[in-house]
Amino acid sequence: MRILLADDESRVRSALRLLLEQELGEQVVGEAVDGASLVEIVHQTRPDLLLLDWELPRLVETTVAVLRAILPSLKIIVLSGRPEKIPPPALTASVDAFLSKSDPPDRLLKVLRRLANKSLSEKL
After folding, report:
1. Quick one: pLDDT at residue 110?
2. CATH of the domain at 102
3. Domain containing residue 63
């Protein structure tokens, strides 16, 4: 699975990269630090999965719709550092999962495995 990380905090991106590469052996194909660069990086790298900080600077609600138009098969997991803040319904309806950054790593790995299995079954 080709994964793109989108978070403005380098320590979060580093931790996610380490987790994904060591625990799952997955390839991180790129990193975005703001919403302005995200669309271009998705277009260039064509990832299978996007881990998206929903508080990413310069991210607008329509970004997810634009990403889906560019790459309809893209799986999107939204991560939030403030899970108490409810995301807009348009965002939660158009993503595959919504997780808190404070969730244990095992929860993210479980969601990733579920999405990977779903992707494989869709291809068969």
Report:
1. 93
2. 3.40.50.2300
3. 2-123
